[in-house]
Specification:
With 129 residues, this protein is mainly α. Helix content is 60%, strand content 9%. The protein has a three-stranded parallel β-sheet. A two-stranded parallel sheet has the order 4-5. The radius of gyration is 16 Å and the shape is elongated.
């Protein structure tokens, strides 16, 4: 099993550099791949800012990627929850924070939009300190 960096995932998902896309595709075709949470978070940022992906496009790209039988995200439940909550309108980074906080009593934030969105999509308490 190998881990891949953000640029390898982005090349695979965008195909913007044909030579690197081909190398990424070959790697994903022959190896068992794990993608760390930090790489997933950075990929979302790159896809959103550099490639103008909309939230649903990011979610669909990740769902396709993690639908491959040889590719899995680190902390799969966390990532799958984050993707689902992102599809429902939560910022992706906030969705990861929320998903990683499920073993806690609550999540404290000053971000009122995050509090409101979390209340709409889950019963987990996100509140101001």
């Amino acid at each position: 099993m190998i881990s891949v960096d953000t640029n390898v995932v982005v090349r695979l998902l965008t195909g913007d550099d044909p030579k690197q896309f081909q190398k990424a595709r070959e790697l994903f075709e022959k190896e068992e791949i794990i993608i760390t949470i930090s790489v997933i978070l950075e990929c979302e940022w790159v896809l959103r800012y550099a490639y103008q992906f909309k939230p649903l496009e990011v979610a669909e790209a990740f769902e396709s990627l993690f639908g491959l039988s040889n590719v899995m995200p680190q902390e799969q439940t966390v990532i799958f929850n984050a993707i689902e909550w992102h599809k429902q309108g939560l910022d992706f980074a906030d969705a990861i924070h929320l998903a990683k906080s499920q073993d806690c009593d609550s999540l404290a934030t000053f971000d009122q939009k995050f509090i409101a969105m979390a209340a709409r999509i889950t019963c987990f308490p996100v509140k101001a300190p």
